[in-house]
Amino acid sequence: MTTMKWSLLFSCSLVQPLTLLALLFVLITTSHLVVSYSSHDYNDALTKSILFFEGQRSGHLPSNQRLTWRGDSAVFDGSTAGVDLSGGYYDAGDNVKFGFPLAFTTTMLAWSVIEFGDSMPSGELLNAAAALRWATDYLLKTVSLPGKIFVQVGDPIKDHNCWERPEDMDTARTVYMVSEEKPGSDIAGETAAALAAASMVFRSLDNEYSVTLLQNAVRVFKFADDYKGAYSDDAGVRAGVCPFYCDFDGYQDELLWGAAWLRRASQDASFLTYIQDNGKTLGADDNINEFGWDNKHAGLNVLVSKEFLEAQEYSLESYKASADSFMCTLVPESSTSHIQYTPGGLIYKPGGSNMQHVTSIAFLLLTYANYLEKTSQIVNCGSISVGPTSLRLQAKKQGITL
Prior knowledge:
- The chain is built from 15 helices and seven strands.
- It is mainly alpha-helical.
- The protein folds into two domains: 3-282, Glycosyltransferase (Alpha/alpha barrel); 298-402, no CATH class.
- The strands form three sheets. Strands 1-2-3 form a three-stranded antiparallel β-sheet.
- The longest helix is centred in the first third of the chain and has 21 residues, at 122-142.
- It has helices at 3-13, 18-28, 42-55, 99-116, 122-142, 156-160, 185-201, 207-226, 235-241, 252-266, 269-278, 297-311, 317-330, 354-374, 388-401, and strands at residues 97-98, 148-153, 175-179, 340-341, 347-348, 379-381, 384-386.
- Keywords: Glycosidase, Hydrolase.
- This is Glycoside hydrolase family 9 protein.
């Protein structure tokens, strides 16, 4: 891809949520799947995708910071609430740390390394792990006080009205939190998912840290399940997170998503039981064909399908059926296809932030293709059968269009 095209892509991403870059990173880690279709330099794209996260870092920067034009910023975040909330990532081109999409970004970074890390150059794999740890170190701080989760730092209205470097920031660093009295099952469930997924990445890199992540994931998930509610239902939190990252789709999917990641990371039977017993109550059968920071249904179905396919856990068959149904909607030849494509073949969904949909869907296509191939399975889409090769082809088209 030409320098100009990459420049345009990354300048656009600055006004997108940080999740877009995580999902772009996920797509590019599968560059070995598109080499024969394109002469684009996907290794360079991978390097730049991970490097972008260093440009978004908040807090005290490490000595090995590669983007040296960035300096320390927001080092006293959380002081007004009596807690250290320095670190983490700024969202897009502003200086706010929005916890809900940041946690989802963390989950996706971890999932990408889990599924495709073996295809990455060793140096970039370590850079990816460093990017992941910068997020999880911050998330651990947000859940450090019992009965509370700090969900955001920064007043978005004041911040968005003042365009300035984070190093020069003089806008309010307002802290928002949820608690037992003001629950936030959505952000707690996503944070649990992020910590659990990341624990799998660090198992071979830093086992002690991996254990810490998983222990905190279990604790945070219990909080999410014991005190149910959407974080943006509270008036105080809503004033800070809406309309930017309100919970529009409910917290139920995050509970299942968190449980699914805890099951995969820990292999604890209690989380399998949770998914089995609570699936219908929490909307697992709704078969909503969405995947992003606010709606985890399609990703949940793909993730849980792995255990059905590989471990033959037949109680999870409905998740596989829902994952199949979602895949069929993405295949133009299928009678149930309802995804729009641009003339060039890019997935198109009316509304803003289209690239989030493109990259998240491409990731699910590639991941599900791997699960199917490993178990010699296909997807039946009415009159046609779709195998791993077809799903990868759909994802490749998105990579080439990018």
